[in-house]
Known about the structure:
Helix content: 40-55%
CATH topology of the largest domain: Double Stranded RNA Binding Domain
Oligomer: single chain
Order of helices and strands: HEHEHEHHHEHEHHHEEEHEEEHH
Radius of gyration: 33 Å
Structural class: alpha/beta
Amino acid sequence: MxxxxxxxxxxxxVFSAAIEAGASIVNFPDTVGYAQPEEFGLMVRQIVEQTxxxxxxxxxxxxxxxxxQAVANSLAAFSEGAAQVECTINGVGERAGNAALEEIVxxxxxxxxxxxxxxxxxxxxxxxxxxxxxxxxxxxxxPNKAVIGSNAxxxxxxxxxxxxxKERTTYEIMNPADVGVEESSIxxxxxxxxxxxxxxLERMGLELGETxxxxxxxxxxxxxxRKKTITDRDLEAIIQxxxxxxxxxxxxxxHVQVSxxxxxxxxxxxxxxxxxxxxxxxxxxxxxxxxxxxxAINRVVKVPNRLTEFSVSSVTEGIDAIGEVxxxxxxxxxxxxxxxxxxxxxxxxxxxxxxxxxxxxxGLGKEWTATLESNAASAAVELSGV
Length: 386
């Protein structure tokens, strides 16, 4: 029966006859999801007032979600005398689906003060049951699905993260454990602050000194501006990259730009900053984009070496995954390793090479400083003679 588009007096008469015939449950359905919450609540109240013997049976409702009101209508019915709701896990059902069981249960449990009702259902099984139904039916639960979506207890806003870490109830009206979720998650992104970043590292068991933390946070913010969500593996790569830099940095990468394509010669331009604050720029061509970058760096850092190993790996899945580059260079029979991590594999490659060169230069010490000053003086003489 499409009760919400029928005459309420007629529906009450049908229910009265059913109760007289021995029915123990009468069901009032919104078959096509047409009713609105206030309207549906009023209809239920009229059914209660006009149906003979209604106090001796269970009044049930069955709401569809064609206009997105199935849960709201079901809850409105509770407030007006209904004692049973027909609902489904994840809200699955014909057309737009039915009222979502998990949303109704947690609304009653969270706002018991308002509805004056509860259910005997074990809410701690909601998340697991939702996943089970989703897997068997092949219907993915949207991340933003209320109560059981993967984002239901995830906090990405920097302000929300700070509030959550100080007092969970500031931004959470439900305890995730009540629905079978282990804990809330802090999703790091470009709006995340130092508090959330430090808390995440502590949860991962990563301890950094203040200087290391400051450098890691700056690296995180730089990558977060280009990558929507930073995963735990991304963080591990960022921290590992910073730990590889935990020695004197003779050079740091300021800028790298590469031009390449089918039928064109790969060309790279780099800008490096030396430890005295001076910026050095140069360009070069190469057999490939990475080779062009390394040749350009070599024109700035004039230290003989040979690349003996170059490897690239993806930290996470997806087109915006952070790429890790690990290299080895050899100079005077000594081997130096370098590491870089960035969503742009060419930037990661440049970082890795500079990282290895800095290790090499740290061993040269004063000898390298004299060479750099000599090169700078030569460049100045050449420039003045142009």
